[in-house]
Write a structure and sequence with these properties.
Elements: E1 2-7, E2 11-17, E3 23-30, H1 36-54, E4 59-64, E5 67-68, E6 75-76, H2 88-96, E7 100-104, H3 105-116, E8 124-130, E9 134-140, E10 143-144, H4 181-185, H5 187-196, H6 204-212, H7 216-240, E11 244-248, H8 257-265, E12 277-279, H9 287-293
Parallel strand pairs: 1-4, 4-7, 8-11, 11-12
Antiparallel strand pairs: 1-2, 2-3, 5-6, 8-9, 9-10
The protein binds zinc ion (ZN).
Residues 157, 173, 175, 177, 180, 182 line the site of zinc ion (ZN).
Length: 303
């Protein structure tokens, strides 16, 4: 049995999968806010609940909104800031008495979709989660790529490629740079650009609905968004050359992206033809937590 825990900013979701990937049990609790020890206790309790319910012992994989630094073995880059600098990996292995795998949540998303989802069977996969931020993860021939600095796939804080005069230098980002992809493609970034062009509606969902109802300003905002997403992904395709790009998060519900963005990225990719596909996630909102369970995907991890 595989247990996966998705540690989110507001909820902790836990799942138990059998060896075929079928769901045995699922639990969800509120994330203890601002308290590290309570977070460790909550994860431990969830593992105990799943094991009591299934009467089995499982491998444990965990997705966090950050990474474990290879240099220090401590949490870094987490927007749940009470985790930063804490020995989450060591503490959980101690309290659960077993090896634990911890990965960034975007890496877990790509693991899920590459293992038994929309990118199943693909050699090279880029997974992106676009919501309040723009996370990214890379999966190559059966394994997620973490990287030397544990930042592989973090495309969101690269600058928007091929900027037009009015896109440069771009808005300031919380990371300290200007014009980051995240400031354009995240939900808040999209909404901000739309309002700067005099658009109505606050959320991405509002803008998409307005465009569907024939609102020209909203449609123009979406066209600018599609061109920016195409440029941002074209620079990834030039480096990684994936078979499939899987889109997750709130923006993955915008169906027109799947046709329009690949039409546009052909203009930017350095190739006579581009057969890379852009697809929605098969597991929807469950992909993140399923991927944490699949962090243990090799046969020897299963007894
Ligand atoms: Zn940034």
């Amino acid at each position: 049995m595989r247990i996966g825990i998705d540690l989110g900013g507001t909820k902790i979701e836990a799942i138990a999968l059998d060896n075929s990937g079928a769901e045995l049990s699922r639990q969800r609790i509120d994330t203890p806010q601002g308290d590290y020890q309570e977070t460790v206790d909550a994860i431990t309790t969830l593992v105990q609940m799943l094991e009591a319910e299934t009467r089995q012992t499982g491998t444990v994989g965990i997705g966090i909104p950050g990474v474990i630094s290879p240099a220090t073995d401590l949490v870094k880059n987490a927007n749940s800031t009470w985790l930063i600098g804490k020995p989450l990996h060591t503490d959980l292995e101690k309290v659960l008495s077993r090896p634990v795998r911890i990965e960034n949540d975007a890496n877990c998303f790509v693991v899920s979709e590459a293992t038994d989802g929309a990118a199943w069977g693909a050699d090279i996969v880029f997974g992106v989660i676009i919501g309040t931020g723009t996370g990214g993860g890379i999966y190559v021939r059966g394994k997620e790529i973490t990287g030397t600095n544990a930042i592989a796939g973090e495309w969101g804080h690269n600058p928007l490629p091929w900027p037009t005069a009015d896109e440069y230098p771009g808005r300031e980002c919380y990371c300290g740079k200007q014009g980051c992809i995240e400031t354009w493609l995240s939900g808040p970034g999209f909404s901000n650009d739309h309002q700067l062009h005099g658009g109505k509606g606050n959320t991405s969902r509002d803008i998409v609905l307005l465009a569907e109802q024939g609102d020209e300003v909203a449609n123009a905002s979406l066209q600018r968004y599609e061109d920016r997403m195409a440029r941002a992904l074209a620079s990834i395709i030039n480096i990684l050359d994936p078979e499939v790009v899987v889109l997750g998060g709130g923006m993955s519900n915008v169906t027109r992206l799947y046709n329009n963005v690949p039409e546009i990225w052909c203009k930017y990719v350095f190739s006579d033809q581009v057969s890379t596909k852009l697809v929605p996630p098969l597991h929807g909102d469950s992909s993140g937590v399923r991927g944490t369970a699949w962090l243990w995907n090799n046969k020897e991890s299963l007894e």
